[in-house]
Amino acid sequence: xxxxxxxxxxxxxxxxxxxxxxxxxxxxxxxxxxxxxxxxxxxxxxxxxxxxxxxxxxxxxxxxxxxxxxxxxxxxxxxxxxxxxxxxxxxxxxxxxxxxxxxxxxxxxxxxxxxxxxxxxxxxxxxxxxxxxxxxxxxxxxxxxxxxxxxxxxxxxxxxxxxxxxxxxxxxxxxxxxxxxxxxxxxxxxxxxxxxxxxxxxxxxxxxxxxxxxxxxxxxxxxxxxxxxxxxxxxxxxxxxxxxxxxxxxxxxxxxxxxxxxxxxxxxxxxxxxxxxxxxxxxxxxxxxxxxxxxxxxxxxxxxxxxxxxxxxxxxxxxxxxxxxxxxxxxxxxxxxxxxxxxxxxxxxxxxxxxxxxxxxxxxxxxxxxxxxxxxxxxxxxxxxxxxxxxxxxxxxxxxxxxxxxxxxxxxxxxxxxxxxxxxxxxxxxxxxxxxxxxxxxxxxxxxxxxxxxxxxxxxxxxxxxxxxxxxxxxxxxxxxxxxxxxxxxxxxxxxxxxxxxxxxxxxxxxxxxxxxxxxxxxxxxxxxxxxxxxxxxxxxxxxxxxxxxxxxxxxxxxxxxxxxxxxxxxxxxxxxxxxxxxxxxxxxxxxxxxxxxxxxxxxxxxxxxxxxxxxxxxxxxxxxxxxxxxxxxxxxxxxxxxxxxxxxxx
Length: 651
Prior knowledge:
The protein is α+β, with helices and mostly antiparallel strands. It contains 21 helices and 14 strands. The strands form five sheets. Strands 3-8-9-4-10 form a five-stranded mixed β-sheet. It has a three-stranded mixed β-sheet with strand order 2-1-6. The chain starts with 14 loop residues before the first helix and ends in a 27-residue tail after the last helix. Residues 637-651 have low confidence and may be disordered.
């Protein structure tokens, strides 16, 4: 029986005993002539001393298949008394002893049931959209991870090598300078910056190889802010990322819904980085976003990882552009592209050149070069050998700053399309062109794809041809006319126009029919509702206020996702209302004949129509009232676009 190794219970750390020790803790002396090896040794020893001090005052868990999260010390006493009474009844075998044993047994099992209900209620009382999946795991059990089955790889060592060659192909290692020097352009780090970075760190984030959570570093910084300040300020001043923070675990996860799992492309690698490294990454990301010339390095039509821009802004700009181009009776077509293994192909030298040419301060360029170079990543999957492998290419997927670096890396792919639009969200691109005919759009899209493919080859990236989709937009007046079947040929493969395209969580149809989007959201919401109904059966489960906590963060966001962009028709709203009334009845345990007006009041769940209107008004206010510092995506259509035109339908 394989058990997990013991791990510290950081929530039970004795901070009262640690308080005077941490206040008197002093880091090692900084090397007088800092070189990468000396800095690595200094950083490793400093962190090891601090972590060892924390672990001395932290109890260790004893993982076991028999451990139960709902067990209490009171149950241990009742179990001891129960077994004592049973042994006495077997030894003396008198009616009185048998009665005592029966009473002890009834009380013991009744206490177990009460402890389970109390623990279950406490989980749901503090439930969030993220922690609800923990409740699902308690009910259904954890699904076993899919074991990689790759052709030609029979042993775990061969599978490990095949995955590493696919995701991290061999490349010349990064050659760091022999000596690290302080940068005059580096600002002095303050305790307020560290506190601001820690305040944005999620306490539920998965820790790295050291197993330390953000809550531990928050408490350390609260007791003695000088400890983190001395270490992080030196790394920012030198523009250096030490090797001890670059060793991370790469968890191999399967991509759901793949037809076959015999290819490495059916898996993804999520890198679990040390939380201390993530704190430094968050500080560097804030400096990089505040760099004066960063705005020129990012294209206005790039979204994600930027304040004030989300999937809604990208999809709103796309749909508004399509409607604007259709007004002069032009035919509009869009080609949707996806960069293949984008994060894994980020080249260290190329991103450093882009940052230097863009006028980014030298200390940031130096830190990014050290951060991306000479990393080590042992892969974790069932039966993995666990040997660290050198990684000299790509940005770790799971890092806080990798997405921003990837946006800077692929920004040169953007170019101006006359009377058209190119917009992207991380590695998803959409090319939109108008003309007098769909065949003319096909010719333009083929030329544009050849141009962007040449630009991508210079950066060492490519597009996944299998994920390419074509969509010919139509107006409501064209619903009775025959559909266009003009296809596009890319790299020898023919792509026919799709009836619907799923892009950034939104379902788009040629006529922008909201029913296609909300029918799928309704199916997903029904599946989520079936899950929580099993967690709390009607009439015998949780009280109404806990049912409300389940329905509000889980069912409503799934059902209403996209309501800020699309306005459902009357028939679609009726279907959504019918399902929502089932949720309201389950929340209140009301009869099926209860009036719907009473249901909304008793369950504190407003009708769907009001929720949709509220979301659309919030979206309109968000766009109109956004500060000037937030760059909204733009296009090159003949008439100026107002990014809130579509959202105003619901406002």
